[in-house]
């Protein structure tokens, strides 16, 4: 059993913790070793500004202890908006008959990746709808072509669930993280929202992360589309899913995304289970405290000011300059999967991270040196990841400063590099980092710890 739906349903209705109970839970959470579902449910049941402030403060402290001040930046690249599923909330749904569909050619996918590279990105997340005409073979060819013809250092994939052999082929092509969101873990709501297409199969989708791990993916990304059902149920189910992966494979989910349902063309116009901003703040904090090793991903569905808040209370990854339609980075106006709320460029997002006292990172190291799966989880929960994250963020920021940064941001980025260097705690790494920074100034690239 991947998740116990009956137990999670009961926990999602947990009573609000007393001040004493909240203090005890946060004392345990502050150790950075995670929380059980019962404790997570109590935190989600907490209300009022004082209790919320305590939870957010603890989550921010745990985030910094595990990952330091670094905030990873990436961009999605939408390959195709053809889809055979009938998801009620999605702009790509098959029932959208009167909209232009688009699937990038392999060369066009490379062109889009180059456009992102020219902004300074070194990692990209490929996203595609579910249509057998643009299935595994197409995705694999896109992954390989982007590696061969661009300077992208890691390619992640958000693609429909596959069987184990297909996932092995995708992994062999060089895909880093494999993502597939359950959307909602509440089975009746899932069935209501997915009336047609292969995605109707709740269990096949839920079990894909097990198949991905079995296929060799050390790192997988999960998430629920918050707003389809009670956020407390779906948040607890996401934590339970990650704990299942840890119990089975020794590694928690590498990322947990927190997309909040937004309007889509010919999709849902009303949100079935509306979340307030405080609700989402609490979700981010509880994910951080319950699964401290996971990257918490805040998408451009949220506003720029709100995302600036989320990275202080537990979020560790931000998409930037995002286009949710095929060809979007070259200016094409094709069907979007959903409407975005933060339209800033990479430079603007990076500057915002710096202004908030944090360290932007374009790092791709862990996937390329085998620091994945149970090794990553172990290092993160033991406090070993922070020193790598901090140093590698400084190195990637130095590259960005020299190769991509425009005049208006150079001073701020240079200050962030100096501050990041000064905050490196490990004397040996700090000494080596200074040498690597000199090598980058001399023309070397792609240096890391």
Quick gist of this model?
The protein has 449 residues and is an alpha/beta fold. It is 48% helix and 10% strand. The protein has an eight-stranded parallel β-barrel, surrounded by eight helices.
SSE topology:
Elements: H1 5-11, H2 19-29, H3 37-45, H4 49-67, E1 70-80, H5 106-119, E2 123-128, H6 136-149, E3 154-158, H7 164-172, E4 175-179, H8 187-193, H9 202-206, H10 208-214, E5 220-223, H11 231-249, E6 255-257, H12 277-290, E7 295-298, H13 304-310, E8 317-319, H14 346-355, E9 359-361, H15 365-369, H16 373-382, H17 385-403, H18 407-422, H19 427-441
Parallel strand pairs: 1-2, 1-8, 1-9, 2-3, 3-4, 4-5, 5-6, 6-7, 7-8
Structure description:
By secondary structure, this protein is an alpha/beta fold. It is built from 19 helices and 9 strands. Strands 1-2-3-4-5-6-7-8 form an 8-stranded parallel β-barrel, surrounded by 8 helices. Helix 4 (49-67) packs across helix 12 (277-290), helix 4 crosses helix 17 (385-403) and helix 5 packs across helix 6 (136-149). The longest helix is centred in the N-terminal third of the chain and has 19 residues, at 49-67. The chain starts with a helix and ends in an 8-residue tail after the last helix. The mean pLDDT is 95.
């Amino acid at each position: 059993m991947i998740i116990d739906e009956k137990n999670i349903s009961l926990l999602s209705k947990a009573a609000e913790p007393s001040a004493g109970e909240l203090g005890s839970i946060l004392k345990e959470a502050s150790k950075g070793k995670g929380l059980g579902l019962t404790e997570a449910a109590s935190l989600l049941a907490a209300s009022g500004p004082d209790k919320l402030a305590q939870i957010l403060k603890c989550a921010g402290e745990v985030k910094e202890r595990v990952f330091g001040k670094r905030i990873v930046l990436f961009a999605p690249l939408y390959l195709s908006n053809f889809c055979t599923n009938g998801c009620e909330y999605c702009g790509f749904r098959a029932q959208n008959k009167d909209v232009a569909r688009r699937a990038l050619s392999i060369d066009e996918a490379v062109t889009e990746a180059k456009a992102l590279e020219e902004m300074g990105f070194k990692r990209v997340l490929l996203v595609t709808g579910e249509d057998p005409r643009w299935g595994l073979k197409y995705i694999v060819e896109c992954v390989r072509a982007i590696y061969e013809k661009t300077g992208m250092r890691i390619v992640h994939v958000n693609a429909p669930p596959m069987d184990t052999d297909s996932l092995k082929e995708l992994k062999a092509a060089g895909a880093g993280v494999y993502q597939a969101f359950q959307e909602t873990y509440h089975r009746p709501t899932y069935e209501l929202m997915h009336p047609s297409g292969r995605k109707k199969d709740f269990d096949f989708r839920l079990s894909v992360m097990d198949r991905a791990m079995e296929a060799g993916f050390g790192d997988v990304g999960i998430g629920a589309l918050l707003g389809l059902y009670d956020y407390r149920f779906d948040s607890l189910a996401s934590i339970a899913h990650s704990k299942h992966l840890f119990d089975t494979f020794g590694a928690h989910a590498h990322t947990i995304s927190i997309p909040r349902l937004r309007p889509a063309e010919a999709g849902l116009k009303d949100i079935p289970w509306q979340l307030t901003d405080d609700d989402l703040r609490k979700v981010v904090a509880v994910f951080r405290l319950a699964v401290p090793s996971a990257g918490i991903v805040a998408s451009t569905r949220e506003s720029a000011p709100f995302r600036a808040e989320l990275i202080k209370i537990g979020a560790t990854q931000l998409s930037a300059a995002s286009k949710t339609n095929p060809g979007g980075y070259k200016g094409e106006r094709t069907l979007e999967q959903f409407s975005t709320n933060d339209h800033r460029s990479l430079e603007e997002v990076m500057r915002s991270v710096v202004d908030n006292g944090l360290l932007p990172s374009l790092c791709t190291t862990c996937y390329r040196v085998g620091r994945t799966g149970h090794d990553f989880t172990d290092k993160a929960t033991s406090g070993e990841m922070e020193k790598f994250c901090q140093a590698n963020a400084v190195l990637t920021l130095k590259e960005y400063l020299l190769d991509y940064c425009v005049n208006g941001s150079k001073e701020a980025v240079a200050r962030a590099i100096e501050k990041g260097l000064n905050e490196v705690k490990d004397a040996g790494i700090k000494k080596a980092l200074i040498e690597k920074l000199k090598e980058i100034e001399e023309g070397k690239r792609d240096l890391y710890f």
